[in-house]
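If you are new to this repository, start here. Below is one unmodified record pulled from the training split, so you can see the exact layout before writing a loader.
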Amino acid sequence: MKAFVTGATGFIGANVVRALLAKGFEVKALVRPSSDRRNIQGLSIEVVEGDLRDLSSIKRGMEGCEVVFHVGALYSFWVRPKRLIYEVNVDGTRNVLRAAYELGMERVVYTSSIAALGRGTKENPADEDTPVRPEVLIGDYKKSKYLAQEVALQFAKRGLPVVIVNPSFPVGPYDIKPTPTGQLILDFLRHKLPAYMDTGMNVVAAEDVARGHLLALERGRVGECYILGGENLTMKELLDTLSRITGLPAPKYRFPYALALPLSYLNIWLCLLTGGKPRMTPDTVRMTRYYEFFDIRKAREELGYEPMPAEEALRRAVEWFKTSGMVEKGG
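And here is the target side for that same chain:
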């Protein structure tokens, strides 16, 4: 079977491609001409140059395939111009699903995000049915992923056999950018994390997220969402786990929200003056006020999804960052 994959050069996409190859799939990947291709170097796949914003290149690449994995997205909390994140994440998703619909693809797996789901609490984690309230959608990334998921649900109602997966906070190999969660691990390894915020997240191995994509292809119900998550950890628990793995000390100082928010505005102002990219924005600080805890029961029961413990996922991420040389690159 031949699979068409978007986002193959990215973090999750690179893991999905490897999972597909391990299962005997042929892979055809849509890649932008300017993309960093290190994550797919040496892989036995067919590369088709194109762009999510260009429907004709998507249809050209998708021809001859039976199934689609739309993994590609712009994952950033600071994008300028702002419209770009909507063009890629929303319009790009519409283009991929339209092409799949018109070409009669047998099955589509769309990679959404927990960013598109409702928010629970520390005591009562959210699931796929938790209502999405407007105040949950902090920032353009979350808004764009919510709107893109709505596009996918609309195509499912039109008859496209699309299954939606919602990864939480993946860690692991091929995080070359890195993602915000990967950057946190790198900052810890580089001794550049003097304090932490009182927040929480659901940590999952990127390899498990990739396997979850294949399970969704095989067993997922059309038009349904499945959280591909792992273990819920407070930020302190995550850093203490990294300390156990590495032997490095975990930060002891908790950074107060009341101080972090004004500093984030200062950071934005300085970056606008210098042309740099802010490491901390008002949106990312506001997100820390909430625990991003999730219940993965539906994926377990319907897909047979079973992730590894968070400590093992973090251990693999640390090992990959070290062997890839990325720790030394930051000093």
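Two things worth knowing about this chain: The first strand starts at residue 2 and ends at 6. Residues 33 and 136 are 35 Å apart (CA to CA).
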